[in-house]
Amino acid sequence: MVIKVAINGYGTIGKRVADAVDAQDDMEIVGVTKTRPAFGCDLAVRKGYPIYCTYDDSDKIAAFASAGYECHGGLTDLLEVADIVIDCSPGKVGASNLDKYQSAGVKWIFQGGEKHAMTGMSYTSSANHAENLNADGTRVVSCNTTGLSRTLVPLYNHCGKLSVECTMIRRAADPGDSSKGPINAIKPVLKVPSHHGPDVMTVKPEISINSMAVAVPTTIMHVHVIVAQLPDGHGLTTESVIDMWSKQPRIILMDGGETGITTTAEVMEYARDIGRKWGDLHEIFVWRDGVKLEGNTLYYFQAIHQESDVIPENVDAIRALMGTESDWLASVAKTDQSIAKYNNIL
Hints:
Rossmann fold, 2 domains, eight-stranded mixed beta sheet, 14 helices, 37% helix
């Protein structure tokens, strides 16, 4: 079975998801949407992805032809040829889109900018792949929630109980976004707790977690400062925690003192050095020498590439909703191997 995938919103996340889907031998891109003929259309043409208009308005559709692009129709036309749609449109427009997807009878995946209450389901591969099997739709949680899940879920699975406090040091904007962000300031998120930690509980409600956040004048990564309280009798050491994470997919552990990778700038330089497309890092980066277990209290730092850690999760979520792979580890292995091969070919 080849799953026909539509991408609604071909921007920072959408273009990455499209390529990740295109890399899979059990999926194909049947079209991507743009609101107007603008930045990104040329990339879609080079990739061979059919372009559709986000709207069904005939004048908006005609504008693509006037700009020299072939437009295959509006969103309704795209949904007619799709099995599932990945919604990568700007946050907080999801409710109106959801009605369209349900009316068209296609499955749907939203991103973390939408609320869990709207979708009723959320997803990370490591936390709840099985619960999402054959569902009508879901939400791939945010980059921060995805990163927290990757390191906290294996801890919870070992301990059976976990209480976490996390401080999120957030990038102010994506690298390509020049319209917002503190320029010379540190901006606390005054809603306490921030949504990031509690959002983990939409995929793993058994983990007790709270978070606070500050935005800082950088664009390349987020950093998490995590303090986790483990139960008595956990049987772990600093070394065994590191060993546990080393056996998990999509986690990279490195010693900052040995490698010289002590900042997020160097983490992203590492991603570029190993030839990652767009310099992306799908994995969560954990500093091995920043991990310390003292009694029942575990301290560690991790870095999150906000543009890319959710990309492979969207692919795994497709297989969950379509019911084509029930084993999350098998899906993750297939996804990651296909993306790596695809990137080397390109």
